Amino acid sequence: MTILEIDNIDLHYGAAQILHQVSVSADAASVTCIMGRNGVGKTSLLKAITGHHPISNGDITLNGDKFGKAAPHLRASKGIAYVPQGRDIFPMLTVQENLETGFSLLPKGERHVPDYIFELFPVLKQMLSRRGGDLSGGQQQQLAIGRALVTKPKVLVLDEPTEGIQPSVIKDIGRAIEFLRDEQGLAIVLVEQYLQFCRQVASKVYIMDRGAVVHEGPAESLDQSEVRAHLTV
Question: Which residues pair with 188 in a beta bridge?
Fold first, then answer.
């Protein structure tokens, strides 16, 4: 079932048009991977989805409700959680306090960190009193994902979660995404450069070039030479 629908959106930074009639959909219990070279508009697409940059035309729909002009906090309250590139954790807050920042979207009776987050990322439980800025890059990435999950999202938006991360943590993040897909039923939108990782977790792949979608297909289509040509520098 389609949860998130991006329909022919345009996005501008001033006079420069960055996205050109981009259409993407994401299904429940599925991973949609957005790929492409650097600078083709992938992060701008995620900012359009999460409301961090307004779209110029088109619309975005969640469970049939249009919200293309809604502010980021309203989109978060509707069930969209964002893990940005660079993680953006609060370095001076503890791991516990970082996780609890997700409570702002929840009713008082639901303000707790779900046990499954610590099962996915045991290091977070071990370091609850450690400041976020003292964690390694991989640990911060796990914290950023955990913080997003505290909000109980329907859609999880991830911007290059494997960037600059050691291989062992990449495996942990891959297992976490598979769990969230299969056991939690989340719709996951993933921007990723790591071809093997995308092939491992994704059901559907979109490839972008110059602000437009130039390929849509199953993850297996990444093995086609004409598809790979859009990913090589």
Answer: 31, 156
Task: Round to whole Å and give the CA distance between 104 and 106.
Answer: 6
The number of beta carbons lying within 10 Å of the beta carbon of residue 119 is: 11
In angstroms, the CA 71 to CA 41 distance is: 20
The answer to whether the predicted template modeling score (pTM) of the entire model surpasses 0.90 is yes
Spatial CB neighbours of 212, under 8 Å, sequence gap ≥ 6:
19, 20, 21, 22, 41
Residue position matching structure tokens 């940005």: 84
Residue-level length of the chain: 233
pLDDT digit string, tens, across residues 3-53: 999 999 999 999 999 999 999 999 999 999 999 999 999 999 999 999 999
- The 3-state secondary structure of 79-94 reads CEEEECCCCCCCCCCE
Contacts of 173 (CB under 8 A, 6+ apart): 141, 142, 145, 161, 162, 165
CB within 8 Å of 15: residues ≥ 6 apart: none
Residues 33-53: b if buried by 16+ CB within 10 A, e if exposed: bbbbeeebbbbbbbbbbbbeb
Whether 11 contacts 17, CB under 8 Å: yes
Is 147 within 8 Å of 99 (Cβ atoms)? yes
Reported as type and span, the H/E element at residue 164 is none
pLDDT in tens, 71-90: 999 999 999 999 999 889 99
Delimit the domains of the chain by residue range.
2-228
What are the start-end ranges of the H helices in 12-121?
Answer: 42-50, 72-78, 95-100, 115-120
Domain 2-228 = CATH 3.50.30.70: no
